[in-house]
Amino acid sequence: MPSPTPRIRTxxxxxxxxxxxxxxxxxxxxAGPAEQAAGPPQPPHRRRVRMxxxxxxxxxxxxxxxxxxEERGWSVRPAEPAEAAPRAEHRAALIVEVRLHGAxxxxxxxxxxxxxxxxxxxxxxxWVRDAALVEHERGPRTTYHVHRAPPSGGRLRPAAAxxxxxxxxxxxxxxVTVPAGPNSREAAGAELAARDLGGRAFDPxxxxxxxxxxxxxxxxxxxxxxxxxxxxxWLVAGAVxxxxxxxxxxxxxxxxxxxxxxxxLLSTAGALPLGRTAKETRDRSRAAQWATGVAGTTALxxxxxxxxxxxxxxxxxxxxxxxxxxxxTGTGVALALRRTVFTRHAAWLVxxxxxxxxxxxxxxxxxxxxxxxxxxHIPPNVVPAPVTGRYLAAAEPMVLALGxxxxxxxxxxxxRHFHLTRDTTYRLFAVVLxxxxxxxxxxxxxxxxxxxxxxxxxxxxxxxxxxxxxxxDYYGLQGRLVCVRPLKPDEPLAVDNGPVPTDxxxxxxxxxxxxxxxxxxxxxxxxxxxxxxxxxEDVQLIPALQPKPRCPAG
Length: 554
Prior knowledge:
Blueprint: H1 24-28, E1 46-56, H2 59-71, E2 75-78, H3 81-84, E3 91-101, H4 107-121, E4 126-134, E5 141-148, H5 156-166, E6 171-179, H6 184-194, E7 207-210, H7 225-254, H8 261-266, H9 271-277, H10 286-308, H11 313-337, H12 341-344, H13 346-374, H14 387-417, H15 427-467, E8 480-486, E9 495-496, E10 506-508, E11 515-519, E12 531-535, E13 539-543
Antiparallel strand pairs: 1-3, 1-4, 2-3, 5-6, 5-7, 8-10, 8-13, 9-12, 10-11, 11-12
């Protein structure tokens, strides 16, 4: 039975549609295997997913698919016969390469989902038949710095000159990077002698080459995947050994008697990983690796012992936890904001946000002052408060709220890095999330600020009522225990919420108007406000006698 003829949709294009074209890489590079024709290595952290896509075998459909894919920045070319085999009937095969930023895990799944979603939205007859992650490993490279050759003859001067050159003091400010290997030094010399770059000619008779600490003259080459995994495991073990040596050195100072011995012995657990991963000793004997590792871990343990005199175990583990949390959050925020509208327009977004944040800080500081005075039943608009105190009061809750907000942003960044969110299909979600985070940040800062102010006010009231001492300053709001003495004892005294206690000390925060509000801590009635107000011109406020606050007789 003959197969049915596929139904082709027709579209009216307002602009001419180009024919499918091969990628520039296929034009420039000779034919060969798929890995050979893939082109030069791409920038770091960029993943390339190559897909075999079947499209309805019609010129308009193929051209339309090519335009859609290339508008997304994906390279498109017709599939070679070997790539498309076995050929599907009534379908044209295209090779589409999607480039992503992020982790290796989940890259293929995300690329396929993006292409299929685009095909559904555009009502395009396209299907992904095969997809594979293409990775081009960049071989190790070595950097050589040119420096003046040390003089010959004598002993002290050449040794000092060699040390000076090794530290970089004799550099001629020229460096060359070549592929690493046993002949990399000769290759670097040939590169330098081949050109006079920047007017700094290289003369083998007067100059020499050095390898800085960040480079490696002869790294291990042609590793198998298993060897690379083993090397990464040794690197992780070395990093753990460094932290363990410092922690054990601290515990030596904290332990007593024979309990000092276990951490002292355990501090050398990372000696072999350090010796095997250090480039100076990795090719030497096992004894040299052990000796180097033990020396390094002993020095780290000694550093930990010096620091351990002033640090307690709880403080150390809390510090490590905070550092790990900061590293997780900072990296996640960077992953969440890179290649977004925030980074592209940071030049004007950051200056535009300064007035908004500045006004929010002032508003929150004022709210905290109001909350603090509300416990003493004192109107906030009659108490003098410095402007700088408002900003200082709002700093702590805003920083805490910012940390909690950035933590959620970091979670989104890590999800984005592992391709669990798609930038192109969740723009509305990103806008809604940014709005919710902004609102959540403001509410969190206000709640934390009010709680901070309320707790400080209760502590101040407890100090006055129980301990009988002057409360500490709260970001510019300073209460003082004073005694009220009417200037005209024989005449009635104008008072709000009286009577005026003249034999008990009261708390004053100052005043900016004609009336001054005072707080009487000795009033115990629940229905009676502790605060009252008198006219400043009718009374005299004198400091209460100490150590127990009391008012002088008469």
